[in-house]
Amino acid sequence: MKRLSPVKQKWRYVACDYVTSLIAFFLFNIWRCKLLSLENDIREFVLSGKLIAEELTVPLGMLGIYWLSGYYNLPFGKSRLQELATTFFSSLVNSGLIYFVLLINDQTGERLIKYELLGVLVILHFAVP
After folding, report:
1. Cβ distance 63 to 84 under 8 Å?
2. How far is Cα 109 from Cα 123, in angstroms, rounded to an integer?
3. Which residue among 24, 87, 95, 114 is least enclosed by CB atoms within 10 Å?
4. Buried b (16+ CB within 10 A) or exposed e, 7-30
5. Mean pLDDT across the chain
6. Which residues, 6 or more positions from 103, have their beta carbon under 8 angstroms from its beta carbon?
7. Is residue 2 one of the residues assigned to a domain?
């Protein structure tokens, strides 16, 4: 079998990370809509212009955090434990940034709901990619 060049492997990682981050953020927004009862119709919420813009740009910011963590430097010969730790800490940083930039002003009524949203965000961003 032919081996991929490091450049192609990096682009494959980037494309896969973008798609999985997009899926995780989309699933989070569905959870958020149901938890906060934001809209009667979930399609209206998910297809709103502001949310679509967020869903397309947030994964790009997440790729920046992955890049800063050094995830794309060496596409071959990675330690599984090191890759797991890098993914976990990048997920924590990404989730924290999303929470403080986009979600802090959500009208939830209870602080516990905000913590639940943050926990779901961390779990989805760690488990989906």
Report:
1. no
2. 23
3. 114
4. eeebeeeeeebbebbbebbbbbbe
5. 84
6. 32, 114, 117, 118, 121
7. no
**What does the pLDDT read at residue 22?**
93
Structure confidence at residue 58 (pLDDT): 92
Cβ-contact 128, 23 below 8 angstroms:
yes
Choose between 72 and 27: higher pLDDT: 27
* Residue whose tokens read 């488990």: 127
Q: What is the pLDDT of residues 35-88, one digit of tens each?
A: 877 666 788 878 888 889 989 999 999 999 888 888 777 767 777 888 888 889
Structural domain boundaries enclosing 28: 10-71+78-127
Does residue 5 lie within any of the structural domains? no
CA angle centred on 51, ends 50 and 52, rounded to 5°: 95
Residue 97 CA to residue 103 CA, distance in Å, equals 9
